Amino acid sequence: MPNQKLILDGSRVAQEIKNNLLERVKRLTEKGVTPCLATILVGDDPASATYVRMKGNACNRLGIDSRRISLDKDTSTEELISVTQQLNEDPGVHGILLQHPVPSQIDERAAFESIRKDKDVDGVTMLGFAQNAFGLASYPSCTPAAIIAILDYYQIPIEGKHAIVVGRSPILGKPVSLMLLNRNATVTICHSKTVNLDKIVNSGDIVVAAVGKPKFIQGNWIREGAVVLDAGYNAGNVGDVDYEACLEKAGAITPVPAGVGPVTIAMLLKHTVDSAKAGNNLNLM
């Protein structure tokens, strides 16, 4: 990477994706198909409610229908799956998003698995994960897809690079590791039990922070010129990276906010539009 710092502007990347979607949504609507994303929110967690509202507003700005289902915090797994099954069978719904985390009494994995594959636009099912591993996923998990989209937008090489992923969740750390591997990076996955984490991170050309702890990645962990992608979002608009400290060493870095987050939402909208096109067998761009 050049010595000049490159701020990876996620808002800019997201806007280009959404500009492209505007034309695609218009073409679908002219064919009598309005893409529709159904979001399910269980309980009254303020942060989750905010995320769902943001996604709904983003849909509305593009002409995508947003169908919001709010369920009581005492909803059972069986009741939630029943709602999901109704949405699976509704031809007017093209994407289903279950906002997580869900209340503790719900079997989250069972709830995710109840989403039909062709409507799993958030890439949360085990089948979707497996397809992603083989490079065949129609709708990979949205945050990993956003990370790859940012790298591609800024033409940052992936092939042959050493990528360090800090975090191993099934919808972020693991799938982004597989996506980087499929793009011919050499990938090291780290986690809370990793010994000498700072030294391992320092070996990375690309560092993905997905650990869910504010300012966890320290500036002196980053090698000179590394690309840092912060997929964390914590209270107070703080990411998983100590931004100011890492900026001193990084060649390129995503801020928080306005980094990975906006692109994650844009990828969710793209997947919904893709699903609407595929579900209606339309030969559109």
TrEMBL record:
EC number, UniProt record: 1.5.1.5, 3.5.4.9
Stored InterPro entries: Aminoacid_DH-like_N_sf (IPR046346), NAD(P)-bd_dom_sf (IPR036291), THF_DH/CycHdrlase (IPR000672), THF_DH/CycHdrlase_cat_dom (IPR020630), THF_DH/CycHdrlase_NAD-bd_dom (IPR020631)
Keyword Hydrolase carried by entry: yes
Record-listed NADP(+) binding positions: G167, R168, S169
Domain Tetrahydrofolate dehydrogenase/cyclohydrolase NAD(P)-binding: 141-278
Keywords: Amino-acid biosynthesis, Histidine biosynthesis, Hydrolase, Methionine biosynthesis, Multifunctional enzyme, NADP, One-carbon metabolism, Oxidoreductase, Purine biosynthesis
Reactions the enzyme catalyzes: (6R)-5,10-methylene-5,6,7,8-tetrahydrofolate + NADP(+) = (6R)-5,10-methenyltetrahydrofolate + NADPH; (6R)-5,10-methenyltetrahydrofolate + H2O = (6R)-10-formyltetrahydrofolate + H(+)
GO biological process terms on file: L-histidine biosynthetic process; methionine biosynthetic process; purine nucleotide biosynthetic process; tetrahydrofolate interconversion
Pathway connected to this protein: One-carbon metabolism; tetrahydrofolate interconversion
GO molecular function, a single term: methylenetetrahydrofolate dehydrogenase (NADP+) activity
GO cellular component: cytosol
Signal peptide from the UniProt entry: none
Record keyword NADP present: yes
Tetrahydrofolate dehydrogenase/cyclohydrolase catalytic domain boundaries: 8-122
Protein family membership: Belongs to the tetrahydrofolate dehydrogenase/cyclohydrolase family.
Subunit description: Homodimer.
General function of this protein: Catalyzes the oxidation of 5,10-methylenetetrahydrofolate to 5,10-methenyltetrahydrofolate and then the hydrolysis of 5,10-methenyltetrahydrofolate to 10-formyltetrahydrofolate.
HAMAP family, alphabetized: THF_DHG_CYH
Protein's name in the database: Bifunctional protein FolD
Taxonomic path: Bacteria, Bacillati, Bacillota, Bacilli, Bacillales
